[in-house]
Amino acid sequence: MKWISQLIFIFVIISSCKSQKINDFSTSSITYTAQSRGVYLSVWVENQKVWVIKGRNEKPYEVVLTAQEMKELESVFSVLNLEKVPSLKAPTAKRLYDGAAIANLAISDGGKAYISKSFDHGFPQKDIEKIVTLLVSYSEKQA
Fold first, then answer.
1. pLDDT digits (tens, 9 = 90+) for 15-32
2. Contact 136, 33 (CB under 8 A)
């Protein structure tokens, strides 16, 4: 009887571990864009490399991240609820009257695309705030 209860316990533990989805950073791509009449910013992460464009007619440049920065990005990405990203509501509406650039976050993971609704640059939804803040901070680094 004791071994049956232990077997059931192990089965429950294994089942719960399988149900927790962890995003695979190595096969994903993340793109953050912000644009208005005077602003253009695009930051994307693909194949564990970060690229930045700071102007409409500019060429992209690669930003080299330290091992710690890459680990932090992977950690933040792994806990994102990707299914929730497209339904997040913008907390502010400054982009509607030119008070802020229009921003978007797009994530491709496992062949599926998760694209946020537009939000104000500098005012992301709480659920994606950490990753957006990291991506914007990479744009402040020089090539």
1. 544 444 566 677 789 999
2. no
